[in-house]
Amino acid sequence: MNDHDFDRAIQLQADDSLDLSAPSGGLATMRYLAHTSEPYWNAISPFGGTTVALVLNAILQHPQRLGDPLAMTVNFAGPIQKGPMLVEVSPIRTGRSTQHWAMSIRQQGDDSPLLTGTAVFAVRRDTWSDSESRMPAAPPPETLERQTPPANVPFLERYAMRYVDSHPLQGGDSSLTQCWISDLPPRPVDFPSLAAYCDSFAPRLFVRKGAPRPISTVSLSINFHIDGEALANEQCLAAFGRSRANGFYRGYYDQEAVLWSPRGSLLATTHQMVWFRD
Amino acid sequence: MNDHDFDRAIQLQADDSLDLSAPSGGLATMRYLAHTSEPYWNAISPFGGTTVALVLNAILQHPQRLGDPLAMTVNFAGPIQKGPMLVEVSPIRTGRSTQHWAMSIRQQGDDSPLLTGTAVFAVRRDTWSDSESRMPAAPPPETLERQTPPANVPFLERYAMRYVDSHPLQGGDSSLTQCWISDLPPRPVDFPSLAAYCDSFAPRLFVRKGAPRPISTVSLSINFHIDGEALANEQCLAAFGRSRANGFYRGYYDQEAVLWSPRGSLLATTHQMVWFRD
Fold this sequence. Notes:
The structure is a homodimer. Helices cover 14% and strands 36% of the residues of chain A.
C-alpha cells in the first residue's frame, strides 16, 4: 500500500466474519470494513470525494471485477459519523463486456444505509474515438499560485487548487471556474483519486454568492472517459477541471464539471445535485 | 387514467400476490406488474425513455413517497424482452426533506435484474433561485417542420422532433443539436414524460457519423430542476432540448442534454453513457 493519506482513507479490510463464498457459479457480494479519515474530514462529515473513492475502490478490489469504471452514481442518504464503516459491493449482473454493481455504506447503530449507489464497469475495445470537449488553453499548474483554502476544513489541506481566470469566491452572475487540481503531497491520478477530484470543486453556491453557505451533496454521478491503462500512461499528477451550475432552484442546485489530464486527454465528466440554504 | 399510449406504456398494477405491509413503522417495498409497450418499442428492445418513466412512475405512485423527483440514475443491465415485467421500488431512507430510493425491473426466466437504479426525491422550499443555463433563442415549434423519423422504429412515431439549426444526421465534427420535442398525439409534460424526453435525443454517434450505427444506452441520469406544482403550471406541450457529447472513447460515448419549457424554464439536465460499434 502507498503511504499517502489518501490511500489510508480508502483502505478496505475484507470482513472475515462473513461467508464470502458465492452460490455455485454465482457472483459474490463482498463486505469490507473501512474507517473515516481525519485528514480528509470535512466541516461536519467526511469529504464526499473520499467516500466515493472508497466504494469505487471496493469494486476495484473485488475478485470478480470485470474491466474499468464507466459510470457511477452515489447518493448520500444520511450523515456518516466518525468511526468504522461497513462497505458492501454486489455484482448485480455481468455481461460479455459490462458489469453492473450496487454498493452501500452502513454504520453500526443505524438501520438504513448512509450511502447507496450503482456503478457500471466495462471492458474497453478499439473503436473510432474523439473528444468533443477540448481542454481550454491554460498556463501549466506550476506557474499558478495555490488558492489559500479556508481554515478549519481538514480535507482542503490535502488538495492544491490553482485557478485560471476565476476565483472560487468570485461572486456574481456566473458559477464557471477553471482550475488545476492536485493532491498534497502529489500522488499519481488513478480511478479512486479521479473520483475524489470530481467532488473537490468549490460548491457553485459559494462561487455565486462569494462566500460559504450551508450545502450538502445529495447525489453525485461520474462518467469515465479513459481506461485504466491509458490513465496509468498519462502519469498525471494533476487534472484540469472546468465546473459550472445549470440551475439553482428551491433548495437544490446542480454542479457539473469536466476533467482533463495535463496532456489534454478527457478523463471524466461529473455532475451532482446539492441541497443548499441561502 | 389518460387514454394516451404513453400512459398505457407506464401503467402499473400493484402485485396483490405479495404481502405489502411494512414492518411496524417501516417503509414498504412495492412491487408492480407492468408490460412492455408495442407503440413505444424500439428496434430490438423497449424505448429506454418509457422504461425510465415506468420506474419513476412506480415511485410517484408509492403511498409513502415524499416530495418530487430530484435526481435519478437508471442502469440498463440486460435486454428486456417483450411481455410482462416486475417493477420493484424500495424507499431506502427518508429524511426530513429528502427520500432515497432503489428500483429494479425483472422478467420471468431471468435470475438477475434487467434494470437497476436509484432516485432521490425532495420537498422543495423557497430559496434564492437562478438559472444559469438559458434557453437559446428559437422559433416556436409550430413554425418548424417535424423531422421525418426513419421507418421501422415504432417509438419514433410517438414523438415530434423539430430541429433548429441542426439535423440529427448532420455528420461532421460536432454532435450539438437543438430541437423541440413533443408527444404525438400531444400530451402535457409531467415528470414521467419529461424523463422519457431525456432519452429521446438522436444518439450522438448518429449525429457525428451521419447515419445509424449499433448503440445501446448503459446508464442514464437525470437531474430535475423544477418541482411538480411549477411543472403543472407551465402546461408544456413541448420541451426545447440541446444535446451534445463530450467524448467517444474505445466503445463508449456520453450524451448530455438540457431541457427547457416553452417559456424558458429550466426543466432537467441529463447525461448517459452509451455502448457503440462504429
